[in-house]
Every structure is written in C-alpha cells, then in structure tokens.
Write a structure and sequence with these properties.
This protein has 15 helices and 2 strands. By secondary structure, the chain is an all-alpha fold. A two-stranded antiparallel sheet has the order 1-2. Helix 5 crosses helix 12, helix 10 crosses helix 11 and helix 12 packs across helix 13.
Length: 377
C-alpha cells in the first residue's frame, strides 16, 4: 500500500520491477501468481456454493439453481459498478452479524458449552496436533484469516482508483507531495490497524463458538450440511430464533465477499494479462473491456467448480493454503519495496521495520511449514 501511494504503480507494474528472471517480459512473481490463482478459483467456488446453500435454506428450490442465479447477479453488480449500494448494505449487515456473533459468545457462558479461561489459555500455547491433515487445515485457515495475499495485492487498485494514492497525486518529490504522501500513509496505517482489530475479534469469537459448540458435540461441518451445522453455534447458544438471523447474516457476509473478490480479481487479472503481453495495459479502453469481460467469465468458473465438487468447506481450505503461498510473494515484494524503492523522505522508524521483519518471518515460517507438511508427509 505504501509503495502504491509513493509510486502510483499497479500491482503487476510493481512486480515486474522485482529482481529475478522474466518470461515474455513478465517477472517470475507475476507468472507464479497466475499459476497459484488457478487453485484460488476453488476457494471462491466454495464461497459461491455456500451462498447458494444458504439461499436454498431460506427459499427452497435447489442449490444448483441458486448457484446459477448468484453467479450472473454478482457479475452484473461488478459489471455495472454498483459499489456504493453493496458497500453500504454489506457494512450494515456485517455489522449486525458481528454483534450477533459476539452476543452468542457472551450467551455461551450460560449454557452447557461454557468456556473456561483455562481452555482459552490452552489454545494460546505454541502447540499443533500431530496429524498432518489437521495441520494443513490450520495452515488453510491461516491463509484466509484476516487479509489474504490476494487481498493485499488488490488493495493497491483501490488506493490508485479512488483512495489514498489518488489523493496523493503523481510523485514529484516536492514538499507538498511529500506532505500529502506522509499524511495519507498515516491514514492507511489507521485503516490497517482498525481492520486488524475488527477481524481479530470477530475471527476469535467465531472460533470460540465453533470450538465450544461444534467440537464439544463432535460435529464437523461438511459438504451440503456445512451451513446447517454452523447455524448450531447460534441456535445452541441463543435459541431456535437465531437460525434465520444467522442465515440472513451469513448470506450477506458471503455475498459481499463474492462481490469484493470479483471486483478485485477483475483488476488483478486484467493487470496481469496486460503485463504478460496479452494486450496493451496502458490502453484504458482495452483495459476496461477486459475488466468487463472478466466480470462475467470469473463467476461462471466459480459456479462450475462448485457444481463439480460440491464441497465448499474443502474448497475454501484449499484456497486458503494457496493464499499462504501467495503471501510469500507479497513478503518478498514488501521487503524489496521497503529497502530498494522507498524514497528517503518516506523512510519509516525502527518500530515499523521491527514489525515488518516480525510479520515477514512469521508469515514465511508458517507458509513454509505448511508446504513441508504438504509434500513431505
């Protein structure tokens, strides 16, 4: 994000200036991302399947029918650019869903599934289960918790199109530009920190519900029963009335995820295709044409993959493991931007660099450990 603000470069324009070999004029990181993202289609295919399952529970027809309806709907919204409407509705519904989740955790303590501080403390120890399959699930969850690698890469487009980078303006190293850049970078820090606080609290609350209610009963969310099983976390703590509230909230949360993913993917793929030589990325008309085309092609692929595998939980976790690997590319790029391309006037303090190194090491260690477990065991 800081690099986008100070350089004005799109994600793959920046990647193409990273060190390492090039193929057809595109950096190895660009090609690596393109290969990895082919597996990410499974993840979002699982999400579109989750929405279809929920909608079929609310208005029964068939899951396949809802899948076929949802795909073109999300395409139309991104194609026509109805961002503000979805953004506002999603914000309200996700906010209400978050409150419901936190209230459920509080209500949990008055049920047979009450959680002790000792149990929470045991979950904070540095231990993992011996079973390699469970470790891979943990790595997959790590990849999709919070802000994933592809979402970090997508963030640059919003900075460039209507965010902090656009307000900073083209770099000219003048005092006015430096002042604007530093100001908007500080705003970006606040944005990132607040996001971290929100998704950490919500993820922890959701996890505690699952561990306390589902694990205690030996219930595993699988395939077509995924959503119905997850609903137990709310009905077993708040009562049967919470089922419909959960379904509505989950539908909005997942649909907003689809919408945000498609809006980002159309830009990522159009950027990538332009930089591997499929078309002239600098041609605005052609770039917008590709974004519009991808808005229809990508959801169609998501829907077909769900209808083929029909295992949303597994599909999402596979995508999560891939996201862990994409994070390695992001870490490599972040360090290069920090130490090779950041102007002296924007250099951060030691605390920032310490956080950068700690984050990079943890992400790298977790992703590499997951790869070792995947291929060795």
């Amino acid at each position: 994000g800081k690099h986008a603000i100070q350089s004005g470069e799109s994600t793959f324009a920046s990647f193409n200036r990273l060190p390492g070999p090039k193929i057809r004029g595109a950096n190895w990181t660009t090609w690596s991302w393109l290969v990895l993202m082919s597996l990410k289609f499974l993840q979002v295919g699982g999400i579109i399947g989750g929405v279809a399952i929920i909608m079929n529970m609310i208005a029964p027809g068939s899951v396949a029918m809802w899948t076929v309806l949802i795909a073109p709907l999300v395409s139309l919204l991104v194609f026509r650019g109805y961002y503000q409407l979805i953004e506002k509705l999603s914000l309200i519904m996700i906010g209400l869903f978050t409150i419901l989740t936190i209230v459920s955790v509080c209500a949990l303590q008055s049920t047979e599934f009450a959680v002790s501080w000792g149990q929470i403390a045991s979950g904070l120890t540095f231990q993992l289960p011996r079973e390699s399959a469970l470790i891979l699930v943990a790595i997959g969850a790590f990849g999709i918790t919070g802000v994933g690698g592809d979402e970090i890469m997508t963030y640059n487009y919003w900075l460039l199109e209507k965010g902090y980078a656009a307000k900073t303006g083209p770099r000219d190293d003048s005092e006015a530009w430096q002042r604007r850049a530093k100001g908007w970078i500080r705003v970006m820090y606040a944005d990132a920190i607040l996001s971290m606080v929100v998704y950490t609290i919500v993820t922890a609350a959701f996890y505690i519900l699952g561990a306390a209610v589902l694990h205690a009963q030996g219930v595993v969310p699988e395939k077509g029963e995924l959503v119905e099983t997850l609903a137990l976390m709310y009905t077993d703590t708040l009562g049967p009335w919470a089922r419909n509230v959960f379904l509505l909230g989950a539908a909005v949360v997942l649909f907003s995820t689809l919408f945000a993913a498609l809006a980002g993917w159309t830009r990522l793929y159009s950027d990538c295709l332009g930089h591997i030589g499929v078309y002239d990325f600098q041609d605005d008309k052609k770039r917008h044409w590709w974004i519009a085309l991808l808005a229809w092609l990508i959801p169609a692929a998501w829907a077909m993959l769900y209808l083929l595998f029909k295992a949303p939980g597994m599909m999402v976790l596979v995508g999560g493991m891939v996201t862990s690997v994409i994070l390695l590319i992001v870490v490599f790029a972040a360090f290069h931007f920090r130490y090779r391309r950041l102007p002296d006037s924007l250099r951060p303090n030691r605390f920032y660099d310490g956080c950068l190194w700690a984050s990079g090491l943890v992400i790298s260690a977790t992703a590499l450990y997951g790869l070792i477990m995947l291929f060795v065991k």
